Amino acid sequence: MANDSTTVRLMTAADHERWDAFVVACPEATFFHRAAWQSIIENVFGHRTFFLLAERAGEVVGVLPLAEVKSRLFGHSMVSLPFCVYGGPVGDPAAIEALETAAEAHSQKCGVAHLEFRNLAERHADWPRQDLYVTFRKTIDPDVEANMKAIPRKQRAMVRKGIKNGLVSHIDETPERFFALYSDNVLRHGTPALPKRFFATLMSTFGKDCEVLTVTDGEGRLLSSVLSFYFRDEVLPYYAGDDFAARALAANDFKYWELMRRACERGCRVFDYGRSKVGTGPYSFKKNWGFEPTPLSYEYRLYKRDAIPQNNPMNPKYRTFIALWRRLPLSVANTLGPYIVRNLG
Questions:
Q1: How far is CA 11 from its chain centroid?
Q2: Domain range spanning residue 111?
Q3: What is the CATH number of the domain that holds 245?
Q4: Among 96, 131, 220, 281, which residue carries the largest CB count within 10 Å?
């Protein structure tokens, strides 16, 4: 498929290095545009992918990672990209136009009900858009102490409370401790957990760019943990979990401070607190840290449906499921969860 002198084709294994070099150099690209997501989505979740590469005169000028999600429960869609908060086409205007044309052709050939681009910024004012999500991104100072002082007073007091309580942060080599906290946490919220294999795959695939930070008390008791991604000069805390005791000890605030401190020392200059739903607890928590929300522009092409899908816990039709899920034993929830959550993305 072509647009003027721009050609679009599927990425192959031989293209990975060129694809990633383009992603690193493209200001609009994100960690979730990296080529390795293809194997993760295919091998962990079993979804078919279409990673579209735009070229002109032998040079990569745009990329668009896509995956087809087919579920009896949640419908049939083409998404850029499931399990990722950012996505959509990136490149120069001609490349983006060609990539979007190719994405629509693949979507219609597969017979999906809709195509979803998880764009950071608006591209098509006339496309249906999901207005539920925002992101929180902020520049951090090269000086650690300046970052501490930049935290609003009440939240800074919570960080200092965690320090006073003798909390300790550790960088873990495996996802074991993280998963214990994460899976228990999501069960309390009534949502299925992603499989432990997913987190192990993230760590082995992305190496130093995927890191688990775990907080314990002075005696080694697990309190809080976060799995984060590093990309260029940015850090993105992505998955997290906390023990019941974490709140009283201010372990959650301490955790994010330790992540910010370590990221600053590592040379990061952007702290991406990530996506939140408007009006939720995480939304307020990030605001309390002095971060301002930026709306995300999740844009859709609707083929076999009249409205944007609402496959999220805030949808009233899932209330009964959430209430029942909370009552499951953790071992049962962790066994059943991956079969459900693989189709949510």
A1: 22
A2: 2-131+297-309
A3: 3.40.630.30
A4: 96
Q: Is residue 232 part of a domain?
A: yes
Report the greatest alpha carbon distance in the chain. Answer: 65
pLDDT exceeds 90 at position 98: yes
Phi, psi of 318 (to 5 degrees): -100, 5
Helix (H, G, I), strand (E, B) or coil at 120: coil
Residues 181/227, Cβ–Cβ less than 8 Å: no
Distance, in Å, from the CA atom of 105 to the CA atom of 84, rounded to the nearest integer, reads 22
DSSP class of residue 145 equals H
Reading the block at residue 78, the tokens are 């083409």
Cβ–Cβ under 8 Å, residues 193 and 337: yes
Angle at 59 between CA 92 and CA 94, to 5 degrees: 25
Percentages (nearest 5) of helix, strand, coil residues in the chain: 40, 30, 30
Distances from the Cα of 264 to the Cαs of 207, 233, 235, 241, in angstroms?
19, 9, 9, 22
State the pTM of this model. 0.92
Using pLDDT thresholds of 50, 70 and 90, give the confidence band for residue 4: low
Q: What is the pLDDT of residue 282?
A: 92
Domain count, the chain: 2
C-alpha distances out from residue 6 to 58, 90, 303, Å: 10, 14, 26
CA distance from start to end of the chain: 28
Cross-strand bridge partners of residue 115 = 78, 301
How many beta carbons lie within 10 A of that of residue 292, not counting itself?
Answer: 10
Question: How high is the pLDDT of residue 225?
Answer: 98
Among residues 299, 345, 330, which one has the least CA distance to residue 120? 299
In a domain, 82, yes or no: yes
